[in-house]
Amino acid sequence: MRLPVLFLLFTVMLDAMGIGLIMPIMPDLIKEVKGGTLSDAALWGGLLATVFAVMQFLFGPIIGNLSDSFGRRPVILVSLFVMALDYLVMALAGSIWLLMVGRIVGGITAATHATANAYMADISKPADKAANFGLLGAGFGIGFVLGPLVGGLLGEYGTRAPFYGAAILAALNFTLGWFVMGETVTDKTRRPFTWGRANPFASFRAIARLPGIKPLMLVYFLYSVALYVYPAIWSYFTQERFGWTPQLIGVSLAIFGISMALVQGVAIRFALRWFGERRTVIWGHLVDLGAFGVLAVISSGTVALIMTPISALGAVVSPALQGIMSRMVDDNAQGELQGVLASVHALSMIVSPLMMASVFAVFSREGTSYYLPGAPFIVSMVLIIVGLVVFNRCYPKDKNV
To answer: Which of 292, 306, 360, 366 could bond 377 through an S-S bridge, CB–CB 3.0 to 4.6 Å?
Structure first.
């Protein structure tokens, strides 16, 4: 079991590196191909992220069901191959519309994380699933450390260099998977693919019929919308509020990634052992609530850097929620569950970038009646409070494990 787990960690790490590579240069890239102000670039960045998320929402259940039927291996390998080609297209894009096409294709192929979760569920004992999902989160965090750092350095050679770097990483990941990855879907657990279950709405209905899982998916959605404030506006927020360069933005994202890796790879195991899944979810919500409150009003870049590792402590929420829901689903539907959760996450990515970018643009543009670039974090605070209330009502104390 050790080798498959290590491969999954390396897979999500490389995926995160590909994503993190391009984050520090996105404001400058959008202004380069489109022109306009930083506020305008934030709106276009939000639109690009939303298009990417719409594709993930529509295709997430399809990918999940395909992996239940044809196996995890071909789904991950095909996704990685097309992803490498997509980054090359974006590296050559000379207009905002070609960038848009690149995000459409990228959203369709970005199924490796959800499929990796299903793969992890296949090889994990029920009691170990939450902690092992945390390991994948840690691998993602490590990639998030390396990605922005390398992206910030490559950004010195132009706004296109990070895309070439991401393409190379995806190609290397594909090559590694071709030789190392085994198949976990067996004839016993294989399920025929049907379009009726593969569309996102049918998959939602199938999974939501399980007792108690619908409100937990709502909590997962609200939390994802709130947490997505970081990738949605962090590059724009820190450039506007503190005047940070792409290099410093990359460093801050690397600090966040290191902290997330430690939290999801190490700290979550102690949190689950000491508090149980229920209190771990509650504790993570409260940490994020405090972090968002501070980030909303601070004017010091030094304080923002100090807050970065503290805010990552709330990263225990997602794997704890995944562990609760995974234990409620049969073994032959783990891919479908992860596909639905990928769609729920994608739905949050549809809502969050446009909402957060619009709020940021309103409160940061020149001549605004009330200047507050941190206003999106206040929106996230409200969502965290609502999610916490829903979780307490749907998962009371007597269900704590």
So the answer is: 292
